[in-house]
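Good morning,

Both structures are done.
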Amino acid sequence: MPDLVLPGALHHAHVHLDKCYLLDACCSLGDGTFDEALKKTSAAKAHFTQADVEARGARFIAAALAHGVVGMRAHVEVDPTVSHLCLQAGLSLRQRFASRCAVVLCAFAQDALFYPDAAYEAHMHELLRSAASHEGVGAVGCAPYVEASRHNSLRALQFIFDLAQEFGRDVDLHIDYTLDPASPLLWDALAMLKQHTWLVHGRTRRLTLGHATVISTFAEQDLDRLARECKGEEVAFVALPHSDLYMQGRDVEYSRRSRATLPALDLARRGVRVAVDVNNVGNLFTPQGDGDPLALLPMLVGVYQDATPDSLELLLQMVTTNAAYAAGFPSPASPLEPRAIDLAAELGAEGTATLLHDCASVQEAVLAPPHGRTAWRNGRKVAERKVESWVAEEDQ
């Protein structure tokens, strides 16, 4: 059987290197709520060491390579509890894996940016500003929904946009992680994008919006409006279904519960760039999964109730070219089409790609992703996972 090559390769659009694999280490699961995840993870952060964060992050990147991933946008938290510990660990991992997996760091504020305590607030701002100035950081971001008021949420957005413009970084936001359709912040973020223009490594700045689960409550006219607002803009949304489905809608009767992850196919058909990713692995926000972005796709076929050929193509783009765009990587000069090849040796000239073993079509890749894979980056094989199986002979 031929193999299927995915030019451009699998990418992670949104992962947290500093918060992976905490479930076994220090965070026991209680009621499984978002508040519990925030509180227990915040408490765990007080005991982080750089060696610990690097060890868990290295485990994640090594697993990603085995899955066929060759690039990622990795959020590292910055706040008075960890200071730049997570950032320094991320910078070390970025350098350590540079020839095998490109890591684009986002200096990320999970905690609020604005406080009644002026000194604490100033310290938070200075830590994030210092992180944004580091040449190894590609993006800055925050989670405006954790602020104490909508007014402060808007201030947080403005702070991040100003910071990104000052240091020439992309903006990557966790936004509208809710099913409450009242006053989404994404409209404000898009308006700020249009008001701010700057360059990032010679190209136009980008805005990446993660979660945005409120979009799952949008009517058709709201989706149409969103497509109009995004048209011509350097913006991408990232659905994070493992976390979104696990966390959202718990207070709603099951029979009336939203699917709770943004309608990626509906947006993609309207011309909006959408990626999908795993968000976390082995922690209170995302206890399930092994970090394989391709493994999300069969689940999403069920969530979106759509396995048509065009939709399967769109879903595959969400973990390859669209994921790379959302993570801040250069856009390809021309469309990259998956194709079957007979010899893996042909791949050497492809540059960067993921090879799916014994997979003849996009349909197979999306509906039943093969476990065997090879990752190539810049013409070099950087990881391979082979499958051996054995079945006992029939009893006589």
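Second structure follows.
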Amino acid sequence: MSYKTQQYERAEKLIKNTNIFNGDKGCGLFRGKCYPFVLNDNNNNMYKKSRISICNYFNTNKIAWWGGKLTNHTLSSQVSCLNHLYSIRDDKNTVLSIIQNICPDIIDVLKITTDGDMSEYIQFEAVSDFDHLNEKYSTRGSNCTSLDALIYGQHKDGRKVLFPIEWKYVESYGNEDKGSGNKGLVRKARYTDLINQSKQLKSACHDVYYYEPFYQLMRQTLWSEQMIAHKNTETIKVDDYTHSCDSI
């Protein structure tokens, strides 16, 4: 049995046997079809104590939901990320302990102040102040490179370090070449020079970067490098980064 199938069955049991989803009976509609692991009310997909604050956070910061709205699919990676991390975003010691498991030399975590009055130690659907990837984005979280979550730490040697987080749950990928066709030409026009200049990405063969999940990781790597290159004009001043891809 695949991990994805296991998680489908787990979600069905949680819906049937617990009150985690606030009594929602499941069998909701997703893309026009009924599934036992899909909720009837999308609000029940959020951790109850954080739900209102999460929705306010998205509205206040003009963040687009995946698919255009909060999903009722219980295996959503976006929902999983928020349910796990949002409730601790203001807990400095907890966030620091997470980062020290990745890099023990981090001695402090700093608030990410580009969330305005809702700024804390974890940011969601993070973007830069300016477009450094030639994407001409207009909406945070949609049609541009944005990070599922972001933490900002201080190294013991004084460096300010970004921790970009890509959150995965049950994703699987085919062999779609995002570098082909007219859209592929546009993507290559955006990223080719940046890949060639990258300190982390090998420039000998770019083709691999246009297949998922490498396509996402490539863009996030470039985003992080450009945050460092443009730290004089960005609100968040960055000297280094450590990329983290988390799955549950």
